[in-house]
Amino acid sequence: MKPPAIPRRGLLKTALAASAAAPLALHAQSPAVTWRMQALWDGGTTPQKYEERFVARVAELTGGRFKINLFAAGQIVPAAQAFDAVRGGAFEMMKTFDGYEAGKIPAFAFTSTIPFGFAESDEYEAWFYERGGLELVRQAYAPAGLHYIAPTVYGQEPLHSKVPIRKIADLAGKKGRFVGLASTVMGAMGVAVTPLPTGEVYSALDKGVIDMADRGDLTANFEAGLAEVAKFVVVPGFHQPTTATAYVANRGAHDRLPAEFKVALAGAAREVSASLRQHILVSDATVLAKYAAKGCEIIRFNPADVAAARPKAMEAWRTATKGDALATRILDSQVAFMKELGLLG
Description:
Layout: H1 8-16, H2 21-29, E1 33-38, H3 46-61, E2 66-71, H4 82-87, E3 93-96, H5 121-130, H6 133-141, E4 146-154, E5 159-161, E6 175-177, H7 181-188, E7 192-193, H8 201-207, E8 212-213, H9 218-223, H10 226-229, E9 232-235, E10 243-250, H11 251-255, H12 259-293, E11 297-300, H13 303-320, H14 325-340
Parallel strand pairs: 1-2, 1-3, 6-7, 6-8, 9-11
Antiparallel strand pairs: 3-10, 4-10, 5-8, 5-9
Helix pairs in contact: 1-12, 3-12, 6-14, 7-13
């Protein structure tokens, strides 16, 4: 006999409850499922270790019935092809940065980072979970046959430079690697932007193809060796003060999942988001000393200089919507929330 339907809140409570009974019940009710997932990160790096936690947590919440085989960046397809590969069903799930596809889907410019915008990661995550952001980004993904599961939200990504950048005016005339909304905003600040893949940042800095780059959080960038090729580290990351990467699945594959498995994905994703954010918060406090030990100079921007450049950034935000209705709705929602938080006048 089919068990009675469980309300959504009940499903979340059931999936996340630390009881032995839940996995046993799932084992009896749901067939085993195996997915493949390609992440954003190289193997052995700190962010990739948190993706390992994610897939392990999904398995735990489903009594081992939902197994996700995890692959590092580029192991199944080149990173730039992951969107189309998941869309086409080559594998079921990816970890991505929405900004990579912002040129094709303008809404994605605002669901990965807001340059000069949300100052704290909790503020940005609150937009997703408390102000309807999840529903809006799911609308953006739906026409591509993809389902947005949840974000991983953490704090700033620093600017790594081969030349000293001590104020906003110093950006003009420099060559830099930025993606998504940051590319539009930094272009407005006079930067000649090159949207290189993450894996090419080290080489481009090393060879002098670019003067500066955004790449990842401070620890991830140190692990990637950026201290060797860019001797100036600029904080705070005004171009990316908060960051959201995304768990995204093929919509057909997601639709076929048992309801409990869908809830396990969402629950595990939110747990990992908080866990990684807290880890980065702690590691950022110590990793700057490691950069200094490698001969890097840490440059701290004057908050007043950043604030003075915000109106120009806001103009670039509006330009990045490209007149798209959904992108405009998302930006309007975020601006309204930032005003409520006192971040904008």
